[in-house]
Amino acid sequence: MSSLKTLAISIAAILLLITGTSANAGALRTRLANGLTVVIEENPSAPVVSIQMWVKVGGADEADKEAGLSHVFEHMLFKGTATRAVGRIANEIEAVGGDINAYTSFDNTVYHLVVPSRSFSTGLNIIADATQHSTFDSKELQKELEVILEEIRMNEDDPSRNLYKTLLRTAYKTHPYGRPVIGSEATVKTFKRKTILAFFKKWYVPSNMTLVIAGDVNAKAALKAVKKEFKNFVKGADLHKARPVEPQQTGLRTVITVKEIKEPRIGLAFHIPAEKHRDTFAIDALAGVLGGGESSRLHKRLRLDKPVVHSVSAYPMSMKDSGLFLITATLNPENAQEAVEATMDEIRKLATSGPSHEELDKVKLNIESDFIYSYETMDGIASQLGYYETIIGDMNYKEAYLNGIRRLTPDDIKAVAAAYLTGKNLTVSAVIPETAKDVITQKALADAVVIKTAPQQAAHSSERVSKVRLENGITLIVKEVHANPTVAVYAAFPAGLRYENAQTNGLGTFTAAMLTRGTASRSRLEFARSVEEIAAGMDGFSGWNSTGGSAKFLSRYFDKAMTLYADMLLNPAFSEEEAAKLKEETLAAIKRQEDYLPGHTFKLLYKELYKRHPYGMPAIGTPETVSTFTREDMVNHYKTYFVPDRMVITIAGDVDTAYATEKVRELFGKLNASSNRLPTQIVEPRQTEIRATGAIKQKEQTHIGIGFSGVAIGDADSYPLKVMTEVLSGQGGRLFVNLRDMNALAYSISAFSKEAADPGIFGVYIGTAPDKKTAAIDGIMKELKDISTEKVTDEELKRAKGSIIGSYQIGLQEVSNQAATMTNDELYGLGYGFELEYPKKIDAVTTDDVLRVAQKYLTLDAYAISIVGPNEADEAKEGPAQEQSAK
After folding, report:
1. Topology classification of domain 252-457
2. In this predicted model, which residue has the larger pLDDT, 258 or 731?
3. Which residues are registered as beta bridge partners of 883?
4. Domains 464-668 and 691-869 in one fold
5. Which one of 39, 253, 370, 699 is at 20 to 30 Å from 53 when CA atoms are compared?
6. Exposure letters 784-800 (e unless 16+ CB within 10 A, then b)
7. What is the pLDDT of the chain when averaged over all its residues?
């Protein structure tokens, strides 16, 4: 690793001198003759490989008139090459079950795909073809620019993105980090093909690119394949990057934006050094002390001691150049000033006294565990290698970074808090509803800061799996996976929305959320500290069909983690004080949901589709039901559903089966079986007419959901229905190609099939411009009619099946997903080993099967439709930024 020095010339050093290639226990790095950097890490823990191309150009490298141009390449690079027509790249990847996408940041544009390792050659060829031979067809460009304009409008409707945008624009007066990576409508509308080609020729050259490969490959063979694919890639001209330097901020800045939303968002942004700066270690740890978990200072102060926010987070936005330390919160308007004052007070305390050794040790462990968890997927490994190679210039920086974290002292944290989290270095932004204008003002925000400002200073199927039924009826499944020192636990009981009614709606979600808010022997804060001290994660859950609890932790803490997990599931306190806090948070979350228009669209759609069945209700509940919940309600719910004879628990990861079994028997064996019966289920009759619903929202986009009665889990029709859905979905699917690619009717469009314990839903969602609403609906209905009239092609069938099977296997890389899948499969009667059968069920589907289910379920004269959007234009009002001195 980079932190180790050797006194003698090693074999690796000799190789470096001769070939320009460095080899170590982790990864191989080489620089081809044309300047392309290649990083390869072998990891055979799952039959998966991730391939990523990191291009060192992003939003911060553009001229003002080019703003958003890097992001256009994210959309266009997979849109056809000299040998591949539009849509073929997505088809090829989805046909093998892979996933392909791209993202743009201020510093990089990254093209990434993940495929089963057997399809490595296909994946590599696609990345090579796209980055060397993309054609940027003029017609396709115009369509994609329309899609980008829809994305810009969608972002305008998102209050969190608005907060982020105004923070950066106000904090950066000179540096291009102040511009949105996506650009603006004004710049995007000016882009022409010649602009794209000039940018491509300048920036997409080997010396400015890094190819990263991680997964089940042989490094030498992979490198040989890379050299072949890029042998004709011309070196290109040398690049000279010159970004303007942001002047030091000398006074507090505040900005307020008024939008049509329900809940205010507030953000604080402090300038911090670039990622490579020596203070980065302490700044990252400072974020953990302030906002890392329930026992962190801001969470405890603002949510537990006196709840004045609904959510709060603290994190550094570290970048190649000077970044920002961000603190964001959602809250009620009347609490805004107090929340900012309390936040600045906690900062002042850290700048004066520093954190305790206990706090810092917890944060160090959590940072280290994050690295371990990131290595569970090939994408995670490749992303880390790519980031460190392109931003730091050292792919092995991980070890140097961890050593830097391990060496930190409380005084280091105190020093960076005093140096950077100051009033004159601060920008405060608020995105608020019209009704909050008189409460949240720039003066109120400035006063809050000045008063409290700090002083200036996939899993292989051959893994061992066992199942046992304990004496009290608990079904225990243990799967040994020793590739990574992590363990996941997932326990579930039949419960959830399926068993609720108009009076109890939301009680399952509410009760599950209370599991981590204190036990009979531990307060909420004590439980949180105990969990965070071992870098674990534990939570309760409740969905449509089940409830329970999950956990993930490092295997070296197995005994302690399992004891905490059992305490959470078996001994919840259901404290009335915590229930009151949760009630307020839940009511705020319900209100906040209306600001997320796709979710609001689905909420209305389910309500219209399910007129009798509980699936038509929101899992979180309603203000009317949540406000009535009592401790007695929670206790009764818990006693009814959390019973051992209906419990399935799976432990997956770095464990010994016999030891894990005895530990579960020890912790859960005394739980007594129950004689109570589950409530009788309501049957939802199949829909016989078209039902329409919707809501008027003065936003930039119209959101449309269309839903049909679906099938239950395990139904024989569920497999061809999944294949039909996949034919319609994805970047190579009919909806994406015909509505987005061919007609630019949407930024976001998808089809989905959701099975449940009772019949679920098949649906289609699209976000489109208001003036394209009718065309979007007509386009969707045409595609649904076509697929229920004629058989899909053999090529479509092959692509869909390969996509489903491959993505299913890729999704099982993490032990947490393996544990959840086995528990749910067992709970719903499929059997804990169904993960091996599912690919076979999908592979057996024929074109006749797809046509049959399309004709059966796509009842074009009987469905539900939900439309959420504007009825007229309404410009958001935005106040000017102000800068003033901080005392």
Report:
1. Cytochrome Bc1 Complex; Chain A, domain 1 (3.30.830)
2. 258
3. 253
4. yes
5. 370
6. beebbeebbeeebbebb
7. 90
Give whole-number Cα distances, 720 to 829, 834, 857, in Å: 20, 17, 11
Q: Which helix (H) or strand (E) holds 541?
A: strand 537-542
What is the DSSP secondary-structure string of 301-352?
Answer: IIIIIS---SEEEEEEE--SS-EEEEEEEE--GGGHHHHHHHHHHHHHHHHH
**Distance (Å, whole) CA 735 – CA 786:** 11
Residue 374 near residue 381 (C-beta atoms within 8 A): yes
Mean pLDDT of the region 575-586: 95
**Among candidate residues 877, 878, 876, 870, the one with its CA nearest the CA of residue 698:** 870
CATH superfamily of 464-668: Metalloenzyme, LuxS/M16 peptidase-like (3.30.830.10)
Distance CA 387, CA 370 (A): 15
- Report d(CA 640, CA 551) in Å as an integer: 23
Query: Which pLDDT does position 675 carry in this prediction?
Result: 65
State the number of CA atoms in the 13 A half-sphere of 615 facing the CB.
27
Exposure of 305 by Cβ count < 10 A (0-12 exposed, 13-18 middle, 19+ buried)? exposed
Amino acid at 71: H
Q: How far apart are CA 385 and CA 395, in angstroms?
A: 5
d(CA 72, CA 278): 34
- Cβ neighbours of residue 63 under 8 Å, at least 6 residues apart? none
| Amino acid, res. 404 | G
Where along the chain do its domains lie?
1-31, 32-152+164-229, 252-457, 464-668, 691-869
- The amino acid present at 266, given as its one-letter code, is I
Alpha helix ranges (H) inside 218-321: 219-229, 280-291, 297-299
| DSSP result, 101-123 | EEEE-SS-EEEEEEEEGGGHHHH
pLDDT at 366 over 70: yes
Single pTM value for the model:
0.80
CATH superfamily of 32-152+164-229: Metalloenzyme, LuxS/M16 peptidase-like (3.30.830.10)
Structure tokens at 339: 């929340």
Q: What would the pLDDT profile of 58-111 be if each residue is shown by its tens digit?
A: 999 999 999 999 999 999 999 899 999 988 898 899 889 999 999 999 999 999
Q: What is the pLDDT of residues 171-184, one digit of tens each?
A: 999 999 999 999 99
**777, 795, 774, 796: which is closest to 785 by C-alpha?**
777
Cα separation, 39 vs 315, in Å, equals 29
Place of tokens 């980065």: 280
Is 442 in contact with 337 (CB distance < 8 Å)? no
Spell out the CATH class of 691-869.
alpha beta
- For residue 460, which of 656, 216, 658 has the smallest C-alpha distance? 216
As a whole-number percent, the residues of the chain with pLDDT over 70 amount to 94
Strand partners, 112: 52, 101
Residue in this structure with the two tokens 């919840």, named with its chain if needed: 572
CA–CA dist 443, 699 (Å, integer): 29
Both structure tokens of 299 = 């969470």
